[in-house]
Amino acid sequence: MTDTGDAARLSGPETKAWFLAFADRVSRGADDLTDLDRRAGDGDFGWNIDTSLGRARSALEGIDPGHPAEVFRTVSDTFLASGGTSGPLFGLWFGRVAHGPEAPWAVADLASVFDTATAAVQRLGGAQVGQKTMVDAMAPAVQALAGSASTGWRDALREAAEAAYAGAESTGGMVARKGRASYLGERAADVVDPGALSIAWFFASAADV
């Protein structure tokens, strides 16, 4: 992979803008996420993630990040302090991403940190692709980043978003094997997993930066 310079690398301020765009997207779609979770869970997912991102927004407004890792650490802390099941999982995911280098990130860095973070989520929950969880969007996004021929973070994350959306949509035809939806069996088979959908929104929000 050829490095085309700083413009191809994701900076701290760009990462902050990415999270603010994600917070806006979730705010607009929180009711949709809650409706999906109500049909296949306990109905609090949209509220929980929207509240967590509201706290993240306040925390991010107080920093001038020099690198992406600083942003991910800040957001991770707000999610780890949240309730429900989703908060700790997102907190873990973002926290592992924060282990990346303290410098602007190339595409290879993005692929590496999201691979590490997704593996951590899978170890914690034991979820695999095909079990109707957020991993169904995370794993394809990681694969897209790892296989990206792009030298710029925008195009690479766009590819990751497309893969994540496809993964999220596939959960609409699955019987859940993990989480609250697994208690409903076939009754929730046609419901898109809200966690997977929010992961797709996360990657797609990079296009709004």
Report on this model:
This protein is mainly α and 209 residues long. 63% of the residues lie in helices and 0% in strands. The two termini are 23 Å apart. About 2% of the residues have low confidence.
What is the gist of this entry?
It comes from Nocardiopsis coralli. Helix content is 63%, strand content 0%. With 209 residues, it is an all-alpha fold.
Task: Describe this protein with a few key phrases.
single chain, 209 residues, mainly alpha, 8 helices, 63% helix, globular
List the helices and strands and how they pair.
Elements: H1 12-40, H2 45-60, H3 68-80, H4 86-97, H5 107-125, H6 135-147, H7 153-170, H8 194-204
Q: Level of helix content?
A: 55-70%
Number of strands: 0
Q: Roughly how many Å is the radius of gyration?
A: 16 Å
State the secondary-structure class: mainly alpha
Ends distance: 23 Å
How much of the sequence lies in strands comes to under 5%
Shape, principal axes of CA atoms: globular
Order of helices and strands: HHHHHHHH
Poorly predicted regions: 181-185
Number of helices: 8
Note the main sheet: none
Output mean pLDDT. 89
